[in-house]
Amino acid sequence: MDAPHALRGVTRGLHHVAIAVPSLADARAIYETALGMRALPVEFVPGQKVNVLVLFSDTQRIELVEPAAADSPITNFLAKRGPGIHHLAWRVENCAKAIATLKQAGLQLIDDTPKPGSHGTTVAFVHPKSTGGVLMELVEDPHS
To answer: Are the beta carbons of 87 and 71 closer than 8 angstroms?
Structure first.
């Protein structure tokens, strides 16, 4: 999948697809047991007030995201839209530089500075108003 035009030169490919779920335990049974995906340990991300379960099918990564508080952004998403795809996450070399590049290109960002993500990543979100209605995340991953 090619990056949208505004992200060309900023991204190194798709990092993951995030799926909002009301319950990691229920979703895990489908993805890990029925589909045979390999799971990492669940991690709490305090800045987003979510629990994240990273799953792999070979090298493809998805993240199941469960709200961990009533004021989590995922709580609001689930209330409005129900379970489903929440965002696309793009791998970037340097999250701060990617933010600056996208701002200069006129995109609206949710995060003006990088934030800690799950499993040692650094992340920032791009507002869906700037990307054709799709919430996008920039991910600087020291493990990839």
So the answer is: no
Residue 86 and residue 67: Cα distance in Å, rounded? 12
* Strand pairing category for 43-45 and 115-116: unpaired
Answer yes or no: are the C-beta atoms of 110 and 124 closer than 8 Å: yes
Find out whether 100 and 112 touch, Cβ atoms under 8 Å: no
Cα→Cα distances 134→72, 121, 127, Å = 19, 21, 8
pLDDT attached to residue 1: 45
pTM: 0.88
pLDDT tens sequence across 8-34:
678 889 999 999 999 999 999 999 999
Cβ distance 127 to 109 under 8 Å?
yes
CATH number at residue 89: 3.10.180.10
Mean pLDDT, the chain, whole residue set = 92
Q: 25-45 burial string, b = 16+ CB within 10 Å, else e?
A: eebbeebeeeeebeeeeeeeb
Q: What's residue 16's pLDDT?
A: 96
- Domain residues for 43? 5-140
